[in-house]
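Question: I have long wanted to understand how a fold can be written as tokens. Here is the record:
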Amino acid sequence: MKIRNRIFLDQIIKIEEQIILTNKIAHYLLNVLRCKVDEQILIFNNDGEWLAIIKNIQSKKIIIAIDKKTRDRKNNKEIKLYFSPLKRTPNEVLIQKCTEIGITIFQPVTMEHTNISKINTERLRLIAIEAVEQSEQLSIPKIYQTTSFIEFIKNIEKNELVIACTVECIDVTISSILRGSTHTCISILIGPEGDFSEKEINAIKTNKNIIETSLGHNILKGETAAIVATALIKDSLTKC
């Protein structure tokens, strides 16, 4: 029988130990998921996933016993997303959906046409955790504070391939870029509303680690472009 409830615990987990869950996690299990005594749940952290059994429920805490390990963490290929920060709701949609698909690092980048510079990384991390719980993944993506476009260019790693989604590129597909690629890190670059500035486009075109790609003839919103590009890259990497 498939276990219906799954939560992230940011701590060391050992077989046969008992763990006391309090605060938000206990509230979530009791009042949102309606868990009962003797019910099985899945617990995971960045090291793997475990089967646990609810042993005791009190007013503000739950005691669980770790039964066995069900999965080990796999070292999947890192996929990084550089994006221009959006308004609150589109930002949250971007984090949620791209996490579900498989982004491992989110790096907001301020550009000349960027309207929003600050993001709430703590709230976005909670959204990412929920997305990982729902999509049955194990690793929580890293979400960094905003950096500048100049710093982004400066800090591109030696063996990093950055796939830049630009409006003017119409005939280069993501699958053709990734075919035969030996880069250890694959990244996506999504511009702001109004696209990249002329100065930024020139920097993209002259950087040997950046290749432009097309997401089709339609002009997509920032969050839509990020989701589409992530899905295409994940699919292409699966087929490579």
